[in-house]
Amino acid sequence: MKNSRIAKQGLVLLGCGKMGSAMLAGWLARGLPVESVWVIDPKPSTWLRETGVHLNADLPVTPAIVLVAVKPQMMTDALPSLTAMGNGQTLFVSVAAGTPISYFENTLGAQTPVVRAMPNTPAAISQGITAIVANGVAGPDALDEAEALLRAVGDVVRLADETQIDAVTGVSGSGPAYVFHLIETMAAAGAAQGLPAELAMALAKATVAGAGALALQAQEDPAQLRVNVTSPNGTTQAALDVLMDQNDGFPALLARAVAAATDRSRELGRG
């Protein structure tokens, strides 16, 4: 990133909470010069103050990218201050949940290149996955630039159109919470079977983390990995008979959970 368009023209980070800080740390680690970064945040952390970036200072006239990472409820106050950068060469990349591309076009101008992104919380340790989609003005070069930027915190996938982002929210955006709850309930179930609570939690955390890592690295798909660990009429089969029940198991429960999150994402997007 040292000699990129971003380094030369500058990057503005609007909002620097947990997600913004994780991304900024990734960019700086990849060689983006601190003098190329401007951060606007009303309550900067001690870490942010110590990075050496331009903090709450006058912004460049035409930065390469403005990355919008403010909370949705703060958007109406924060974004209008950047209207002078709209309808130009500055690419706006938004990781603000529930804010559609049309909002940016209406606020900044219809000819503003915009990429909307949906990351998830493992981005805080550079293990996230982010889905991106652009408006027609942005074009392939803008998508490439946004993807390179967001790879600082994990993998990136591209969507065919913006309507898919609600389903992405239901699967990966909200998904870490489902997995955390799985760990909670596995640990509680282990304790109910006689394990010390701390041991049950350690086993549940390591099992979920290890299985996830194996699913990412293995050539087999998750269905085959499940088969590999399941002996006929064994202990795993006994558990899966419960979990895979079409009415009361994971298939029905997770379908309802993802649908509920997706529906709520659509509602938030409509304001």
Descriptive overview:
With 271 residues, this protein is α/β, with parallel strands linked by helices. The chain folds into two domains: 5-160, Rossmann fold; 175-269, ProC C-terminal domain-like (ProC C-terminal domain-like fold, Orthogonal Bundle). The chain contains twelve helices and eight strands. An eight-stranded mixed sheet has the order 3-2-1-4-5-6-7-8, sandwiched between helices. α8 crosses α9. The chain starts with a helix and ends with a helix. The mean pLDDT is 94.
Question: What overall geometry do the principal axes of the alpha carbons give?
Answer: elongated
**Mind describing the biggest β-sheet?**
8 strands, mixed
Model regions low in confidence, pLDDT < 50 over at least 5 residues: none
Strands, total number: 8
Strand content: 5-15%
The CATH class label of the largest domain is: Alpha Beta
Q: Oligomerization state of this entry?
A: single chain
Identify the CATH homologous superfamily of the largest domain: NAD(P)-binding Rossmann-like Domain
Q: What is the number of independent domains?
A: 2
The computed structural class is alpha/beta
Query: Would you list the SSEs in sequence order as H and E?
Result: HEHEHEEHEHEEHEHHHHHH
Record the strand order, biggest sheet. 3-2-1-4-5-6-7-8
What's the rounded overall pLDDT mean?
94
Helix segment tally: 12
Give a short overview.
The chain has 271 residues and is an alpha/beta fold. The protein contains 12 helices and 8 strands.
Helices, strands, pairings?
Blueprint: H1 5-9, E1 11-14, H2 18-29, E2 37-40, H3 46-51, E3 54-55, E4 65-68, H4 75-78, E5 91-94, H5 101-108, E6 114-118, E7 128-134, H6 139-150, E8 154-158, H7 165-173, H8 175-192, H9 197-217, H10 222-228, H11 235-243, H12 250-269
Parallel strand pairs: 1-2, 1-4, 2-3, 4-5, 5-6, 7-8
Antiparallel strand pairs: 6-7
Helix pairs in contact: 7-12, 8-9
